[in-house]
Amino acid sequence: MLKCDQVVARADALVDGESLSFRERWALRLHLLVCHHCRRYLRQLRMLVTSLRRNEETVDPATVEQVLHRIDREQNSH
Ligand SMILES: [Zn+2]
Fold first, then answer.
1. Cα–ligand 1 centroid distance for 63 (angstroms)
2. Rounded to whole angstroms, how far apart are CA atoms 53 and 39?
3. What's the pLDDT tens digit per position in 30-40?
4. Is the full-model pTM beyond 0.70?
């Protein structure tokens, strides 16, 4: 079973639709099935990426930093 930090390390690839091996993808799915922290993390990351893509020109980098920090804090608080 993957650990949360391994999932978080892979979350970018998952959200970006990068190619993961079948094994990796399966391991991630399995972890997400049982870990609601990582599910929430992934959902937030997805929302962030989506909104960034939508407003590519208008997003303030400081805002992005802020959101990422908040996600990191929540992720580390369990
Ligand atoms: Zn987890």
1. 25
2. 21
3. 999 999 999 99
4. no
